[in-house]
Amino acid sequence: MLQHEIKKRVSYGETDKMGYLYYGHYAHYYEIGRVEFLRNLGMTYKSLEDDYKVMLPVKSLNMRFVRAGQYDDLITVRTILSEYSATGIVFKTELYNEAGKIMNAGEVRLAFVDSETMRGCPPPQDLSDLIENRKKILG
Amino acid sequence: MLQHEIKKRVSYGETDKMGYLYYGHYAHYYEIGRVEFLRNLGMTYKSLEDDYKVMLPVKSLNMRFVRAGQYDDLITVRTILSEYSATGIVFKTELYNEAGKIMNAGEVRLAFVDSETMRGCPPPQDLSDLIENRKKILG
Amino acid sequence: MLQHEIKKRVSYGETDKMGYLYYGHYAHYYEIGRVEFLRNLGMTYKSLEDDYKVMLPVKSLNMRFVRAGQYDDLITVRTILSEYSATGIVFKTELYNEAGKIMNAGEVRLAFVDSETMRGCPPPQDLSDLIENRKKILG
Amino acid sequence: MLQHEIKKRVSYGETDKMGYLYYGHYAHYYEIGRVEFLRNLGMTYKSLEDDYKVMLPVKSLNMRFVRAGQYDDLITVRTILSEYSATGIVFKTELYNEAGKIMNAGEVRLAFVDSETMRGCPPPQDLSDLIENRKKILG
Questions:
Q1: How far is CA B95 from the centre of its chain?
Q2: pLDDT per residue as tens digits for the range A95-118
Q3: For burial by CB atoms within 10 Å, which of B130, C98, C135, D110 has the most?
Q4: Which CATH number is A31's domain given?
Q5: Domain range holding A115?
Q6: Who among A27, A62, A63 is closest to B23 (CB)?
Q7: Count of Cβ atoms closer than 10 Å to residue D57 Cβ
């Protein structure tokens, strides 16, 4: 299973008056997680857009909130490639607090879209190859 | 079915480089929708926190993205009370663009939590009464 | 003096753990204020970009914070055209809380930029005319 | 001169439809910069609030925008302690793009406020000591 972890600290601007990470900011953590997943794989999301003319609009987002995110906590964002097909990608994301407890878990489904025609398109071969290669390395 | 509609315009700061309403901002639209639903019912969310010492943390969030949100579009946010029980509330939210087409639809599940003990609690009787009364009026 | 007022409510997502409107969100209020100033004048910012191919990047932002913004307060955002010249626009913005007390005041300087050449350009004649006409009406 | 640098990458959610880092997000970069300045000095902002019961509300914010922030650029945020007195702190912040060019520079003035009385207060002695010690080390 291909996965990647990054750390991101909960900033003051991301808290709300309850004192916790505002529920609306988790999707941003998910974005940062999957962008770094791709960079780690060998392909930046920027390059997908700029060089391959492929965009990945989000089709669905599901998440459940298990523990509140605390100010200044250094969150671990684990991003897992869950599905990869001719039409899109599904990433599972799990957030853990500094104590290692699960805070939040969810799933984002993205489609491949040709940025010139704005229509669905197959994934870039280079991306598919990077995924296949990584899977082989990981056995 | 209890529901309420508000309008909210897509600001520049809410767009992303794709030119659309960034997917991570929809949860904020949902929040504004349900807060105005409650105000319209006769109870502000602020009063729930300040006077009733009840918080409504989000337990889950699910949404699907149907059409991209365009800059400066005046979005209709329809908030529907979907479930109301001893432990929490479920709101369904639907977003429509200026052309009246569905953009996004989803569901947020919130729990009643006593802000002093930080434990689950029953809903305030006043809120339950407001909902019952409104249901009777709507027949 | 050309000015325009809108109302905007402080949402939960805009508060921080101090319980106040996070200082980083005021610039967003300023943006919404000046976009509605322009719409009220007869020209949408969207049209400036789409039809006139002119962008208005921000060159400087100055603000002072007088009173904290409270959750759920219905803020008055007053936007005042302060300077209008061959190179740019300066808007002054003042925010008032529900009690009518000043919360925040500041100034944003924007440049006219041709979105095709990405170089400075004169303001669209139609915009200059709208401003002149409004000034005449106001005497 | 006491200063500290961190890196922060421009995320998709922080861009706007111009394709650049939205002007309203810079204040958030400034916040992250000064919080890490303090951590590096030996005092977390969280501890200031939780242990010393001192808050640092922002009194003024000034910034000028020199070059647009690009998506996915790894920005250097340099935070410089500019003033430290009985009533507050002034931080200067400079943002540099990956090419090392200045993007943005500004200044934030914060006050010391006792979180229990909500009145101005002197800075915590421990913070003053940390600053003095660091100055001595740097000569």
A1: 11
A2: 999 999 999 999 999 999 999 999
A3: D110
A4: 3.10.129.10
A5: 3-134
A6: A27
A7: 15
